[in-house]
Amino acid sequence: MEISGKTAVITGGASGLGAATAKLLHSLGANVVIMDLNDEKGPAVCSELGSRAVFAKTNVTVTEEVQAAMKVALDEFGSISILVNCAGAGLPMKTVGREGPHDLNAFKTIVNINLIGTFDSIRWAAFYMQNNEPNEDGERGVIINTASVAAWDGQIGQAAYSASKAGIVGMTLTIARDMARSGIRCCTIAPGIFDTPMMALMPQKNRDSLAAQIPFPNRFGKDSEYAMMARQIIENPVLNGESIRLDGAIRMAPR
Ligand SMILES: NC(=O)c1ccc[n+]([C@@H]2O[C@H](COP(=O)([O-])OP(=O)(O)OC[C@H]3O[C@@H](n4cnc5c(N)ncnc54)[C@H](O)[C@@H]3O)[C@@H](O)[C@H]2O)c1
User: Fold this and answer.
1) Which atom of ligand 1 is nearest to the CA of 197?
2) Do the beta carbons of residue 243 and residue 151 sit within 8 Å?
3) Burial code of 10-36, b = ≥16 C-beta within 10 A, e = fewer?
4) Given the CA of residue 19, which atom of ligand 1 is nearest to it?
5) Confidence at residue 36, expressed as pLDDT on a 0 to 100 scale
6) How many CB atoms lie within 10 A of CB 128?
């Protein structure tokens, strides 16, 4: 699908992979709506972009806020053709730790943000996308989700995160099938290790250990490389129903 002139809604677009994608799509002529909790970085990204960029403060775990943000996109730009789900969070906690079993609310919080927040954004965006005029290929919209290689090779302490990301991988083909009749594609990007503010929180020892595990290129991915993949998914009409590892061939070790 051609990007120029389309409206892209990007959850988690205030930072890291989402912000890089917002910037690339905007540079290719898209209108951009950033849905993010962070009401300092979100507006800052939008003012950097200038026109055709709007911030909608949104907690993706609150469905009223997700719905309101979609309305902002429709009111500002008339339609939604692209959804990129980047909002996400992690929380290291073992299944049984020194203080006892994994806190269940902590597990639910991560699943709520990463999996349910992603699905809620998908269902509303797809609901509006189906009204778009199809292009010559019959396409009306593209949905891109962000899982993680932890969907397959989760490290020690990543039970909640892995479960939430595996849920995203699991629903990708189903959603592509659900929306096929409407000409809406759905793919998931499963990043390995990317240098973003999320990873900057990690102690240097863990960063070094992770970087050493990446066969080639032997470095963290760049947010612009994630954005390149998102662009390809949007532009390539036969990419559908697939979860794509973007990981320099890393297979994460237990720790
Ligand atoms: N950086 C990596 O190495 C890596 C690897 C695999 C997967 N991922 C995934 O990529 C996505 C983007 O991560 P990133 O590295 O750019 O992190 P980041 O922290 O730079 O960006 C995440 C953004 O999501 C927003 N967010 C968090 N919870 C939210 C909520 N409830 N509602 C709305 N917005 C919310 C944050 O405010 C932030 O702006 C995440 O889903 C993450 O799990 C990242």
Assistant:
1) 20
2) yes
3) bbbbbbbbbbbbbbbbbebebbbbbbb
4) 16
5) 98
6) 20
Inter-residue contact 17 to 39 (CB < 8 Å): no
Q: What confidence score (pLDDT) does residue 199 get? A: 86
Task: Walk along the chain (255 residues) in steps of 10 and give the mean pLDDT of each run.
Answer: 98 98 98 98 98 98 98 98 98 96 98 99 98 98 99 97 99 99 99 93 86 94 98 98 98 93
Ligand 1 site-directed mutation target among 9, 10, 11, 17, most atoms within 8 Å of CB: 17
**CA gap 254, 204 in Å, rounded:** 18
Domain ranges of the chain: 7-246
CATH placement of domain 7-246: 3.40.50.720
**Is 59:120 a contact under the CB 8 Å cutoff?**
no
Ligand 1 pocket, residue 88 CB under 6 Å: yes
Helix (H, G, I), strand (E, B) or coil at 168: helix
Ligand 1 contacts CB of residue 193 (under 6 A): yes
C-alpha dihedral over 39, 45, 46, 49, to 10 degrees? 170
Q: Please give the pLDDT value at position 4.
A: 98
Strand order in the sheet with 53-57: 53-57, 31-36, 7-11, 82-85, 141-146, 184-191, 243-246
Q: How far is CA 12 from CA 38, 180, 189, 207, in A?
A: 8, 26, 14, 22
Neighbours of 217 (CB within 10 A): 11
Judge whether 226 counts as a catalytic residue. Answer: no
Rounded Cα distance, 252 and 122, in Å: 29
Q: What is the pTM of this model?
A: 0.98
Both tokens assigned to 82? 């692209």
